[in-house]
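Attaching the record inline, Q. Sequence:
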Amino acid sequence: MDDKDRPPTSDRLRIDIDHGLAADKVASPDPAAAPLGTDDEAGGAPPTAEQRALAAAHQHRARIAAGVARKRTLIGRTMVIALFALIALASLLLLAPR
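Structure, as predicted:
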């Protein structure tokens, strides 16, 4: 099994989240008292490869969904700015001295 087929470690998931690669967080360190996976490992039951793969897949789906939402927001903002500019231009043309 090469590295691409292996699920990420708990530490890799935490690092990705801290670097803003998860949909629900900006790039900033998370000052957790117990970093991701620590409780499981301390309890003698570290996350299985399947659990880590599921967590990574969830982050990937959430990241895609957040990208779609950001794109919609950007399109909406662009439309509002364009409409405002059109109204301003029309106002200037109507109020210009003849």
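Residues 10-95 form one domain. The radius of gyration is 23 Å.

More tomorrow.
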